[in-house]
Amino acid sequence: MVEVREKIDVAIVGAGHAGCEAALACSRLGLETYIFTMSADNIAFMPCNPHIGGSSKGHLVREIDALGGEMGKVIDKTFLQSKMLNTSKGPAVHSLRCQADKMEYSKEMKRVLEAQDHLTVKQAEVSELLYEDITDEKLKNQGYERRITGVKIFSGIIYEAKAVILCTGTYLKSRCLTGEAITYSGPNGLQPSNLLSESLLKAGIELRRFKTGTPARMDGKTLDYSKMSEQFGDDPVIPFSFDTDPKDVQRPQVSCWLTYTNEKTHEIIRNNIDRSPIYAGIIEGVGPRYCPSIEDKVVKFPDHERHQVFVEPEGTFTNEMYIDGMSSSLPEDVQIAMYRTVPGLENCRIVKSAYAIEYDCLCPGQLHPTLELKKIYGLFSAGQFNGSSGYEEAAAQGLYAGVNAAMEIFGKEPLSIDRSEGYIGVLVDDLVTKENLEPYRMMTSRAEYRLLLRQDNADLRLRAKGYEVGLISKEKYDALLNKQELIDKEVDRLKNTKVGANPTIQSFLEKNDSTPLKTATSLAELICRPEFNYDNIAEIDPDREELPSAVKEQVEITIRYEGYITRQLRQVEQFKKLEKKLIPADIDYEDVSSLRLEARQKLEKFRPTNIGQASRIGGVNPADITVLVIYLDSLRRGQSNEN
Amino acid sequence: MGNVLRSFNDDTICAIATAMTDAGIGIIRVSGKDAVSICDKLYISGKKERDLIRHKPNTIRYGYIVDGDRIVDEVMISFMKAPHSYTCEDVIEINSHGGMLVMNEVLSLLLKNGCRLAEPGEFTKRAFLNGRIDLTKAEAVMDIIEAQSTFALESSRAQLSGNIYDEVVSLRKDILYQMAYIESALDDPENYDLTGFSSELKSKILPMIDKISKLLTSADEGIIRKDGIKTVIIGKPNAGKSSLLNALSGSDRAIVTDIAGTTRDVIEETVRLDDIVLNLIDTAGIRETEDLIEKIGVDRAKEKIAEADLCLYVLDSTSDIEDIDKDIFKLCEGKKTIVILNKNDLTTAIKISKDILPMLFSGSNNIDFPIITTSLLNREGLDELKRSITDIFFNGEIAPKQEIYITNLRHKKLFEEALDSLKLVVDSIEKDLSEDFYTIDLSNAYSSLGEIIGQEVGDDLVEEIFSKFCMGK
After folding, report:
1. pLDDT score of B321 more than 80
2. Over the stretch B130-161, which tens digit does the pLDDT of each residue have?
3. Comparing B36 with B54, which gets the higher pLDDT?
4. Do A153 and A14 contact (CB within 8 A), yes or no?
5. Mean of the per-residue pLDDT values for chain B?
6. How far apart are CA A477 and CA B321, in angstroms?
7. What's phi and psi for B231, nearest 5 deg?
8. How many angstroms separate the CA atoms of A152 and A156, rounded?
9. Considering only CA atoms, which of B407, B421, B402 is closest in space to residue B208?
10. Is residue B469 pLDDT above 50, yes or no?
11. Positive or negative CA dihedral for A72, A75, A77, A80?
C-alpha cells in the first residue's frame, strides 16, 4: 500500500465527552484537528446514566461552560428534566442536574462537531502512536524523553500531528462481564480498541486495569409506576450554560420515579454473591467506591434495610428505563430475580442487562498538571483513560488538555486552574498528585474551598481564563466584567445605605416578625437576618435599580455569607503560600538525606512542582514537608551565598 | 551546588554544648556521619592509641585531645551511634576541662579537621528533622535550656514528655471525625444521615471549647510562672521606688538619692522571690515635668505600665496625697496593682495609714487593691509583698496545681485561634446554618492545633522556632 501521510495539528483519540471538548477547544483556537472515533454514530455517547450534572459534577459543567466548553450548551438543548439539588443546604453544595435525552445529546454534539471549522470527524481505530527521541536540551532538562509526531490508524494511514490527546475512555482492551458471561466488547456492545495499548506500553507508558459498571435498562411498559413516587423537575428551570437564555429552557419535562430495594432483594444478592465476578475474583480491575454496585452496597451497609432506586428515562426515542442505584455484575438470572423484588419492577423485562466493564487506563502520576505526559512532549490525555469516572470529569479534562495542547503549540503559558479556583483544578490536581486506586469521581468533599467554588459563580471565577486562552469572545467577557461591576456596586450600596429606627422601618420589621431596630442599620445587615433576603426588603429600599437575577443572587450570597467567605479566603492565602514555593524540576531527592524512604520514593514518583502539591501526596507527611522546605531553603541560601 | 548540599544535614557539625563560661567541665558535641572519623584525628586513648573507630558505642572513655604531638587537654569521650543518639546521627561528646581557652582550642581543631560550627539550635533541629522529636518537644528543649525557675523546668519537662502533644492529638482526632462525618453525608446523603447532627455536634464541641479555655487559663499563669511577671514600679519622685528595686534585687542597681528625679532611665532587672520571677522595671518619677529628658522617661513609663502584668505603686507614707498621686493611680486602672506604703520606719512622720488610704482615693474605680506597708531601706515588708503577689497571680498557691500548663506564647496563640474557630462553629449551629458551613471553621481549628505539634505545615514556622535555639543544643 502506498504510504499516506496527512499533516494536521492535533489528533484526538476518542470522541466521548473528553474527546469532544478537547477537539472543539483545539479547532476553535484555529488548529487543524482530527477526532478519531470507533463509531461516528456514537459521538458523545452516554453508556451509563442518563444525566449530566449532579452533586459537584454540576459545578464541573458550569466551569466547562465558563471556560468556553460545550457540554452545558448541549444539555440545555436536550434535557428531559432539570433539578437544582441540595437547595436545603448552603449555596456551596447546590448543584444542577439534568436528565438527558441520550440520543438527542449525542446527535446535538455531533452537529456541533461537524459544524466546527478546522475539525474533522474520522471513524477509525488509532492503532499506534508515532514519536521520536528528544534532542532539544532544554526539553531534556525538563524531563521529556520523546516527542510525539502523530498517530497511525489501523488501515495504515499516518496523521502527522504536533500534539495527540488520548481520550480512549473505557475502550482499551475492554471486556464486559455479566456474571460468568464475558464479552470482549466496549460499552453497550460497541467495538473495543485492542491495538493501541501495546503501542502505549512500547512508548513507556504505565497502564493499569480499572472497572466500572452500569445497571439494567428495562422495557418501560413492563413497569408499574403506581408503586413508585414521582420525581418532578424544577419550575422554573435554571439553564446550565451562562450563555443560554433562561426563556429557552422552560419546556415540559419528563418525570423520574423513586422506589426502594428491600430485605428480599438483599437476600438474593447475598445468596449469590459468590457468582459476582468481583467477589469471585474474575475481575482484576478496581471499581469505584463512590459509585458502588448494588452488591457492594449490600455488603458495605449490612444493616441498611433498603437502598434508593431511581427509575429514569433514557430518552424520547425509546421507552427504555435506566435503573439508577442498582448497577451490578451478577449473572442475568440473579439480576432478573433481584430486580423483580423491587416494588414496581415485579414484572419487569430487561432490555439490556447490567454489566461491569474492565479496561486499560493510565496511571496519572505520569502526567504534568497540564495533563501532558511528563516524558512525552506533545502527548496529552484526558477522561476515563486518566482513571476518572463520569461524563463531566471527562469533559472537564478534555477541555483542559485540549487548551493546554494548543497553548504548547502556540508557545504560550498553559492554562492553570488551582484548587482554590475551580473544581477542575481539584480534579486535575487530585489525579496527577494522589495515588487513586479506583476510578476517581468528583465530590464536594474533595474541594477544600468549596464555599468559593460555587456553581453559581463559575463564570466570575473562570471566564477571564477562558478569554485569555481565546475560547471566550470579547463580547462575552465584557458582559462578565459588567456583571461583576454591578455586583460590586450593589453590595457597596447595600452596605452603605442606612435605614433609621423610624416608624416606617419598625412597622416593616414588625410585619415580618423581625426584631425592631435600636439604632440605624445598613440594608446589608438586614439581609443577613434569616427572615430577609434581597427581594423581600425591596419595600424599604426604594432607591434600588432593577438588576438581573444572576446579579441579585451574587449580591445576596456575598452579603449573607461574608464572614465565611472571608475566612475561606484566608485559608486560600495560606494554601497559595505553599503553592508558590516551587521545587526545581531537576531536584534529586537522593540529596535530601533526612527524608524518610517512603516519602523520597513518593516524591520521586510524582515529582511535584511545588511544596503545596508535595504536601498532598499520600505517604508524604508534614515532617517530610518540613525537611523539604528546609532543604529548599538551604539551596536558596547557598545560591545567594555563592553569588 | 556541592557546598549547599553538604550544608544540609550531610555535613558534621560541632559546638560547645555547655555554658560559655569558665566552668569545672565543658562538653563539646559533634554530630554527623563523619563524627567518628574526624574525632579520630584529634583523639588518642589513655594508652595513646587512635582507636576511636573501634570504640564501643554508648560507653565513655578516657584519653587526650592532641594537636599533632602536643596534648591539648585530658578528656572523657563518649560515642553514641546513629540512630540511638540525640540527633539520630553519630554523636561524639568530648568532656573537656571546661576552661574557655581549652574548649575553644578543641573546637577549632574540630573545625580544622572537617566539622562545621553548628547554627543555633541545629542539633535539636536535626533531631526534629530525623523524626526523633516533634515540634512541641523541640520547643521544650529550648525552654529547658532557658529555664529560670523550678516551675519553668518542670513544665518544660512535662511538655517534653508529650503532655501538650497528647492533648492536641486527641482534640484533633475528635474534630477530624466530625468533619469526616459531614463530608461523608454531603457526598452520600442516602447512607449518612444529618438529622439532628447539628445539636449533637454542638454537644461535642462545647466540651472541646471548655478544655481549650481551661488550658488557656493555665497559659496566663503558666507563662507568668515560667517567664516571670512583668512588673512596673511607679510612684511620685522620691517615694522609694529605687529603694524597692534595690531591696528586691539585693544590690544597689539603681541610684538611690534624696533628690527627686535622679532615676531617669527605665531599668530592667529580673529578681526572684523564691519561685516567683519578677521582671522589674524601675521608672522615672511620674509627675508633670518641663524637663525634656525626664519627659521621655515618663512617657516610656506610661508605655511600660500598659504592657506590665503588675504595678507596684510606691507611696511615701510621710507625705500627703496630692492630685498627682490620684493621676498616677489612674494610670494603673484595670491593672493588677499593689500599693506599697513605704517609709513606715519614720513612724513619727506618718501621714497616710493603711486604713485611711482607700478614702483618700475615693473617686477612683480601682480601690480594691492590696495595701502593704514596708520599710524598704530596712528591707522590711518583702514577705508580705510576696504573699500578696502569690494571692493575685496564683490564687495563693505557690506550687503549680495543674498538670498541664501552656507555657509557650506560640502555643497560646494557636490554642486561641482554635478556640475562636470552635466558637464560630457553635455560632453557625446556633444560627441554623447548614452543615457544609461548619467545616470551614472546623478545619481552621484542626489546622491551628496541628501547627502546635508541627502536624500542619505552617509558613516559615520551623525556621522561626529553630533560630531561637541557643548554640550547641
Report:
1. no
2. 777 777 777 776 666 665 556 666 666 666 56
3. B36
4. no
5. 76
6. 76
7. -120, 130
8. 6
9. B421
10. no
11. negative
Residues B419 and B161: their CA atoms lie apart, in Å, by 24
d(CA B324, CA B232): 18
**CA B311 – CA B326 distance, rounded (Å):** 15
Grid coordinates representing B34 are: 563523619
Mean pLDDT of B430-439: 93
The H or E element that residue A162 is part of is none
**Euclidean distance between CA atoms B218 and B213, whole angstroms:** 9
Contact B129 A623 (CB under 8 A): yes
Query: CB contact, 8 Å: B195 with chain A?
Result: no
- 3-class secondary structure, B53: helix
Interface test with B, best of A88, A89, A583, A631 (most B CBs within 10 A): A89
Nearest CA in chain B to A88: B434
Torsion, CA A135, CA A139, CA A145, CA A149, rounded to 10:
-70
- A638 vs B4, B128, B462: nearest CB: B4
The predicted complex's ipTM stands at: 0.89
Closest C-alpha to B457, from A449, A568, A434, A615: A615
- Under the banding of pLDDT at 50, 70 and 90, the label for residue B260 is very low
The owner of cell 493546554 is: A404
SS3 content of chain A, % helix, strand, coil (to 5): 40, 20, 40
| Residues 609-638 (A) with a CB less than 8 A from some CB of B | 611, 615, 622-623, 625-627, 629-631, 633-635, 637-638
Shortest distance between the Cα of B227 and any Cα of chain A, in A, equals 29
**Taking CA atoms, what residue in A is nearest to B444?**
A571
- The residue in chain A having the minimum alpha-carbon distance to the alpha carbon of residue B180 is A445
- Please answer yes or no on whether A622 and B457 come within 8 Å at the CB atom: yes
The predicted model gives B231-242 an average pLDDT of 77
The pLDDT score that the predictor gives to residue A198 is 96
A530 DSSP 8-state letter: T
- Given a cut of 70, whether residue B295 has pLDDT beyond it is no
Long-range residue pairs from A245-252, CB within 8 A, at least 24 positions apart, any chain: A248/A76, A249/A76, A249/A79, A249/A82
Q: What is the pLDDT of residue A456?
A: 97
Closest by alpha carbon to B233, among B172, B170, B313? B313
Which among A89, A93, A625 has CB closest to B457?
A625
Total residue length of chain A: 643
Amino acid at the residue A376: I
Residue with cell 482513571: A387
SS3 state of residue A174: coil
Is residue A512 a contact partner of residue A539, using CB atoms and an 8 Å limit? no
- Give the integer Cα–Cα distance in Å for B197 and A377: 51
Please give the average pLDDT of every successive group of 10 residues along chain A, which has 643 residues: 88 98 98 97 96 96 98 98 94 96 98 98 98 94 95 96 98 93 91 95 96 94 97 96 96 97 96 85 67 87 93 96 94 96 97 94 95 98 97 98 98 97 97 90 92 97 98 98 97 95 91 91 93 93 93 96 95 90 89 81 91 90 80 71 47
Cα–Cα dist B253/B268, whole Å: 10
Q: Which residue has the cell 560515642?
A: B79
Burial of residue B124 (CB within 10 Å: 0-12, 13-18, 19+) is buried
Task: Give the strand pairing for A163-166 and A10-13.
Answer: parallel
Element (H, E) at A110: helix A102-115
In A, which residues are within 8 Å of B1 by CB distance?
A: 635, 638
Q: With a threshold of 0.90, does the pTM exceed it? A: no
Q: Is the CB of B129 less than 8 angstroms away from the CB of A627?
A: yes
Burial A92-126 (b: 16+ CB within 10 A, else e): bbbbbbbbbbbbbbbbbbbebbeebebbbbbebbb
Q: What residues contact A362, with CB distance under 8 A and at least 6 apart?
A: A166, A200, A205, A206, A207, A208, A381, A385, A386, A387
